[in-house]
Design goal:
Blueprint lengths: L8 E4 L2 E4 L10 H5 L2 E9 L2 E2 L2 H14 L8 H14 L4 H4 L2 E8 L16 E8 L2 H10 L1 E4 L21 H13 L4 E5 L5 E4 L3 E6 L2 E4 L9 H12 L4 E3 L4 H5 L3 E6 L3 E8 L2 E2 L8 H14 L3 H6 L4
Parallel strand pairs: 7-8, 7-14, 11-12
Antiparallel strand pairs: 1-2, 1-6, 3-4, 3-5, 5-6, 8-9, 10-11, 10-13, 13-14, 14-15
Helix pairs in contact: 2-3
The site of 4'-deoxy-4'-aminopyridoxal-5'-phosphate (PMP) has 14 residues, from α7 and β13.
Length: about 300
């Protein structure tokens, strides 16, 4: 594991700064209550992936939280592009970037004292993708488990918002990691159907058709949408709706999507082989090939190149 590189440049409340100078008060509501939202995209050879779509989703999360960041979506797109440009000289070592936009509600008055910084805290930053950490899973296929904890119900806190509060999924992930350190948690929704993982959506292939949980119960992933767009192009039928444990046990193929994973084949589901155990399966492979062509970056090779 390499040492953290603090010479990266981030944007914080109107200024470009070395990221170790981005200092947020311990009284910030994001830290105290998880009262904030974020979004993350990635770069492919330095080019941000569907940046506008990520920023649009970010503003939907912010609107849901009634949080005005004080900058427009276009400004945030421009700042994100600048972050990539200003850190370009560090990209070769990183491989490619995760680019994060983060807004917290800021600091409340302390008794009758006014806080030093009024209003939200806004950060745009980039970090290296965990290419090496995940390389083995791209070679061997992902092992996915459904933990006891259900994904939080939409009438409690909408999973469609990408908020700074991931505790529901963190607690679920811990119980999975306790018995399979390389395992990925895939939470069920309140009705017992597949929902999503800590940072990913899920797809199942049965009889050549793609199935994925409907948006109501999950974050509408930008890579989920990319996969739906590619399926449409490749004339692969898609069904958005309930996938229960019986459907999952009978899947021919299964894969995860996220902006960093892109498309990642699942080899084992709750300890049993998915389909005939080949990962990725043929439909997944067609989608991976189309994804690679669309983004102009062989993301599978990028992960596998980091196998030690
Ligand atoms: N669900 C959750 C809970 C996530 O955190 C993520 C990662 N942003 C996803 C799904 C996948 O979304 P995307 O494809 O936009 O990365």
């Amino acid at each position: 594991m390499t040492q953290p590189n603090n010479s990266r440049i981030a944007w914080f409340n109107g200024k470009f700064l070395p990221e170790n100078q981005v200092l947020i008060s311990f009284r910030d509501r994001g830290w105290r209550y998880g009262d904030g939202a974020f979004d993350m995209t990635r770069t492919f050879h330095g080019r941000p992936f569907r940046l506008k779509e990520h920023i649009d989703r970010f503003y939907r999360s912010l609107r849901y939280l009634r949080l005005d960041p004080g900058v427009s979506p276009q400004e945030l797109i421009d700042i994100s592009e600048q972050i990539v440009a200003r850190n370009e000289h560090l990209r070769a070592a990183a491989g490619d970037w995760w680019i994060g936009q983060r807004v917290s509600r800021g600091v409340d008055p302390i008794g009758d004292e006014a806080p030093e910084h009024k209003g939200p805290n806004v950060v745009v930053e980039c970090t290296p993708l965990p290419l090496k950490a995940r390389a083995r899973q791209y070679r061997d296929g992902f092992s996915v488990w459904t933990p006891a904890q259900r994904r939080i119900a939409p009438d409690m806190l909408s999973p469609r918002a990408k908020t700074h509060n991931y505790l529901n999924m963190i607690v679920a992930e811990q119980s999975v990691k306790a018995h399979d350190p390389d395992g990925w948690a895939l939470l069920l929704d309140v009705n017992g159907n597949l929902a999503e993982g800590i940072g990913c959506n899920v797809f199942v292939v049965r009889d050549g058709k793609l199935h994925t949980p409907s948006e109501q119960y999950v974050l509408p992933g930008i890579s989920r949408q990319m996969t739906l767009d590619l399926a449409h192009k490749l004339s692969i039928a898609v069904i958005e709706g309930n996938i229960d444990l019986f459907d999952a046990a009978n899947a021919d193929e299964m894969f995860l999507t996220s902006t960093s994973l892109c498309i990642a084949g699942v080899r084992r589901f709750n300890g049993a082989a998915v389909g005939d155990g080949r990962t990725p399966g043929p439909v997944t492979q067609r989608l991976i090939d189309a994804y690679i062509a669309e983004v102009g970056c062989d993301f599978v090779k990028q992960y596998l190149d980091r196998l030690s």
